Amino acid sequence: MKIKAAIIRELNKPLAVEEIELAPPKANEVLVKTAYTGFCHSDLSMIRGIFKMPLPLVLGHEAAGVVEDVGPGVTSVTKGDHVVATWMVACGHCPECKKGKGHICRTSFLPHQVGGLLDMTSRLTDSKGARLNHQTNVSGFAEYMVVPEAAAIKIRKDLPLDQACFIGCCLPTGFGAVYNAAGVKPGDSVAIWGMGGVGLNVVRGAMLRGGNPIIGIDLEGSKEAIAREFGATHFINNSKEDPVPIIKELTGGGADYCFEAIGDPGAILQAYWALGMGSTLITIGIPDEQPLTGLPLFYNPLHCKSVKGTLYGDIETGRDIPALADMAVRGDFNLGKLITRRFKIEEINDVVEAMKKRQIIGRWVCAWD
Ligand SMILES: [Zn+2]
Ligand SMILES: [Zn+2]
């Protein structure tokens, strides 16, 4: 079938919006009509080449939609079901999956590296018949998606799909960092670097857990209102002020948990210095491969400080995505307020530029109808 999609043909160049061909789903695959796709900071990292994936590639990994058709053998979804697409497809039998760590399934990383689905082949070709690669099993900036069955997670139908798309990436990444990676408890002090889609969900998760104070930090003062809307008790603009002494003052010596949701080596260092004794720095944002840190390791044992990385909020997708949808319907996540603009696919290069300039407040979503 012919579909419209946004393609990275060259790094650091405008995306190409083209009409391309999508092949039907094979065995254990699902065809989904895309409803909404969020633009995530990782999409910009993809355009910049920080994640090394083969080009040309159909962009997008934060999408929700409606099942249109299923291939042979599919049992978990049927035509008309609402689904969230997930970019991590736990195989169930690799060493990580056997330890209950499907969010770092080693089998699932392989198709990411070749730009294919689970059998390493692509369902996408351009108008000249040349292969286009999939981004992390999803390729959500496309009118329709063919994804593995385990990447199409059925959710309830009363959650609006423009909110549901966030359960594909920024919501579990932020919320899971608080609940699973950190295990924040009531009264724990929390500081978060980066008030984008992920950071706001860290703030919200910390609020749901009873964290206090909850300190949002961003280079843009324009992010303060939405940070407070999501549950931040304080906001620091770190382009104007050094947040470290302010956080030490607010928390009586340093935060119990610092979260870095940007992938910036300087912010990671700043977050480390804002830790209190017996505390943990959770790194969520993914820097490029080069930087080594200048963390003062002397304090790790002496002050019992830990540094911990987390991917996809350490979630188990099949179990947690429907549960997160239930919480979203209950209003726990304030997702209606996270959407600050709906755009058409033809406008996607404007969205890329706005993200480069740190002008996006909340999350902008591509609407397909
Ligand atoms: Zn993402
Ligand atoms: Zn696995």
Task: Summarize the model shown.
The protein has 369 residues and is of the alpha/beta class. It is 29% helix and 26% strand.
Overall helicity: 25-40%
Largest sheet: 7 strands, mixed
Distance between the termini: 17 Å
Low-confidence stretches: none
What structural class do you assign from the helix and strand content?
Answer: alpha/beta
The average pLDDT value, as a whole number, equals: 96
Q: What value does the Rg take, in angstroms?
A: 20 Å
The helix count comes to: 13
The coarse overall form would be: globular
Bound chemical compounds:
zinc ion
- Residues in β-strands, percent: 25-35%
Q: What's the total number of strands?
A: 18
What does this structure look like?
The protein is of the alpha/beta class and 369 residues long. Helix content is 29%, strand content 26%. It has 13 helices and 18 strands. It has helices spanning 41-48, 95-98, 106-114, 161-164, 170-182, 197-208, 224-230, 243-251, 265-273, 299-302, 317-330, 335-338, 348-356, and strands at 2-8, 16-22, 29-38, 57-58, 63-70, 82-85, 124-125, 131-134, 144-148, 152-155, 190-193, 214-218, 234-237, 255-260, 275-283, 306-309, 339-343, 363-367. The strands form 3 sheets. Strands 3, 5, 6, 9, 10, 17 and 18 form a 7-stranded mixed β-sheet that branches. Helix 6 links the parallel strand 11 and strand 12 (214-218). Helix 5 (170-182) packs across helix 6 (197-208). It is globular, with a radius of gyration of 20 Å. The mean pLDDT is 96. Bound molecules: zinc ion (2 copies). One zinc ion binds at residues 90-91, 94, 96-97, 105, 107.
